[in-house]
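Researcher: Go.
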Amino acid sequence: MRVLMLSTPFPTHFTPMVPLAWALMGAGHEVTVAAQPDVTDAARAAGIPAADVGDRFHGLDVLRRHLPDGVRPLELMGPTPPEKMAGATKLWETHARYLVGSYLEFAREWGPDLIVSEQMELAGQLVAGALGIPSVQHRWGVDPLSGPSRASARDYLFGTAERLGLDGLPDPDLLLDPCPPALRHPSAAPGEPIGHVPFNGTGTAPDWLRRPAADGMRRVVVCLGRQTLVLNGTGLYRSIVAAFEGLADVEAVVTADAAFHQGFGPVPDNVRVVEPVPLNLFLRDCDAVVHHGGANTTLTSCSFGLPQVVLPQIVDQFASAELLAAAGAARVLGEAAPQNDPGRVREAVLDVLDDTRHLKSARELRDDMAAMPSPARVVEDLERLAA
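Model: Structure:
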């Protein structure tokens, strides 16, 4: 079986599909990722064959051009309310319209039996429909976007679909959902479960980080993704670092690109600032995570059974944070003011460390995720679908 994977041009949109690609290749199937270089670089780094389609996208340019110096998106626009979720995906409707021809040309040459796309890559369903083969959609994680945006996508892509000989934008033949039941968004259509295998990119953890914290110390990881800093997040990091000042029994590990370290100012003795390290390599020996609510970071933290402090920044991250809090596994600071207040951040960190109810809820999420079918098991469903 030949499986073509498509992704919108953000590596983080593609990453949740990597374990499924590995499972397919491990079962003897051919896999190729067709995407812009923003994604194919990540695919090749993960050992997955890839073909470049189009030029590099530089997706953060869309957000950066509207930001005054030193101002984060959250400080400029506030949290993304549910009624604006549909509008948040317009970019990907336009992307599908203009890339579908290139994807289709590649697919006709390569000859896939099945197309797997992440939740915002709408071109996959169009290409599969034009070729008369099944399509699969793979969610990133918590999904407040696909449901509200579906009607808009059908309308915007109707003409594109018609020119391909289709009656409209096809629905996927199978929808794969890695979320445990407690984190499934109420607007998201029901999907088939697929277990989340933690993968947060390639890299090597230093030896000291692969060992537990010293006796009596609790280790908290701070990871807000690479986009947060690029989008004027240095001040936010300074507030988080300052929140650990004076916490004698807490060791903080802050991951950030080296270019930003100097901007964090004086760092307390119990804080280490390191270059980005894939979370899945060391969370086993940690006690809590402070993060931004990104889909893959959220599910990775849940899969290790860790309580979380979530500081959402853009779009779907707010819904993800709210569901985590509702499940009892997280404290959420969803507004710019408390995020910028070291005292409020410190309070939230100590709460998830000291209140055992957060740990109990986090472990329940972990156990629910462990019971979901593995990507290797889901491969059998894809084989039947393609047949």
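Model: The mean pLDDT is 95.
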